Amino acid sequence: MKSGWQILCIVWGLALGGQAQDVLMRAAQVRALPPDRALQSVPVDLQAVVGFIEAPGGGTVFIQDETGGTFFRAPDRTQPMKPGDRVHVKGTSMPGLYLTGIIAQSYEVLGSGNPPVPAPAGYEDLATGRYHYQMVQVEGIGRRLSVPEENHSVLHLALGSRVVEVRVDAPLPDGMEAWVDARLQITALAAGGINDRRQLVFPYLRVSDWSEVKILKPAPAVANLEALPAARLLQFDPGRIPEFGHRVRTMGKVLAAFPDGQVFIRDLKAEVQVPSSPPIKPLVLPSENARPAAMAVRLASPQLLKPGQLVDVAGFPNMDGFSASLVDAVLVKEATPVVHGMEPVQVTLKEIASGTLDANLVRLEVELVDAYRTGAGWELRLLSGALPMRALLPEAEDIQDLRPGSLLQLTGICRIESSTDQGFRSRPERAMLMLRGVEDLVVLSAPSWWTVQRLVGLVGLLLALVAGGLLWITLLRRQVAKQGEALRRRIAHEAALEERQRIAREFHDTLEQELAGLSLRLDAAVTRPLEEKARRLMETSRHLVSRIQTEARNLVADLRADPESVTDLSAALQELADRTLSDLLQVTVQVEPPLPALPVHVAHHLRMIAQEAVTNVLKHAHATSIALGLKMQEGLLCLTVSDDGLGLDQTSTQGQAGHFGCMGIRERCLRIGAQVEWLNILPHGTQVRVTLPLTSD
Questions:
Q1: Residue 149 pLDDT exceeds 90
Q2: Which of 169, 262, 365, 453 is the most exposed place for a label (fewest CB within 10 A)?
Q3: Residue 240 carries which DSSP code?
Q4: Residue 263 sits in the same domain as residue 360
Q5: What residue intervals traverse the membrane (predicted)?
Q6: Same-domain status, 131 and 32
């Protein structure tokens, strides 16, 4: 029979998901619940043992049963708890940061007992999250102690070749040095740093107080450790196999010390062989290639050391990239005063490429590729052939004017940043120099002013000038051609105008004068007594001469006028009508606006066509009226000259001997792209129709 709590859970599950939800009654069931399922507030009814409480009187409580571990959070902590208490927790699931936990709606302390039995664990168990939020027991070597904040301390524990933090919710006790380099057994809660993707970034251990840290084997006395040369660290030595993980002791003179605790020392006597080029097989190397051995040391607590001081240090051996170093080191004895500085080893790039000068103080000459400022100081990129190389200069207000291509003399600590394997041999892949200060950087020679960038810039400038010159020449040629064409048109226009004026003068001085004389003679002859037939003949001849005089004067006026002065075709037609109008002939002009603006030569040709048509009417039509028309019709400019004369024989427009009027009209129409028609109109008369297509431009 189900309890009231289980019935309530079933009803709650039906309300949330439309079907009954199983009640989780084991820690492994809660632990295995996926995050999306945990968000559905699955009911939990669990009995387990308290293993760890995050903070007294509040926070998260970590519990375990025989299947695994989980945690719960109680908004209202009404009953005190301690590790070993057996509790009954009722609530719902929550996703948690890494694995599913419980939101407790109620809990009850059932009684006290022993804490959960810890599971033996190694680094891999912690890193994979196998025992996450469970009590574990680990064994390792104490590396160092630190105090991140008040009433909290951290023990750095070496589990094999890896180091994890043991975070203790208590201050450091007296005699804390006893834990360093000792083999320790620690019972703690397995935990770790979690990212937003629910991934375990790094593991660590949680301990309530230092009582959970037990010393299995005390640390050996530092003063009793054998001082080893730096060159022998982590080397194969069948006669001496030290216990793995414990610290060793060495002595040397300081080459450089940096504020972050990095110290580089050089052995007093030990030397290493530096080949001039990497050998393919073992060789017997000459003694002149020997270089003093050096090593990197990282102090647990940075101290102010100066180059040249003799130091006695003890630390844990560690492969630092390419060569052995000591980490979490301490000074066995106080450093001696500086007797004299340490001289750098004068080297070449080939010697650096061998890797045997790692951690040593070297000096070399190299060409600068680039220099730029970083958050930690200056970084110099160096020209080093097949081995990429850079130099780091600590923070400085200013350095010398460095330009790419400068020849530099650099003094600093040589570091191999990465390596690559070639068979059984490891070769340096990248190297750098750690300069101690601006005094370690000397500019031997400045680069040539002619850099690649400047040469490219100059070539670009020259190309731009050439392109600009070619463009200017092209524009100038176009301008000269345009001005030359305008000048040619002007000269031709002035020549044509002068020729027209010359012809006009000749007409005026010859033909018009002769006609004037003939008119006077005819006037005199009419005044004499004549027969009626002769008088009519004289009168007709007199009128004919008068008409010829009028045409001659019009011709002279047209010749003296500038063709390009005709810009308003409507006004020109009205002027033509006014000049032709007489007592015997009525001339009218009808213009239908709007009319487009016409080029000067087009307006001139249309005016001359209209004048020639009017002249033909005066000569041949015997008309009493002439009508001039101008309008736009379906994109065509229409010019019409209509009369009420005798009409026109179409064959007469094709040209006859001695008659050139119609031929001239056709030629002018051809010049401007117009069409001309001669039409007979009823009841009698003729119409000359000229149509000119106009574009929308």
A1: no
A2: 453
A3: -
A4: no
A5: 455-475
A6: no
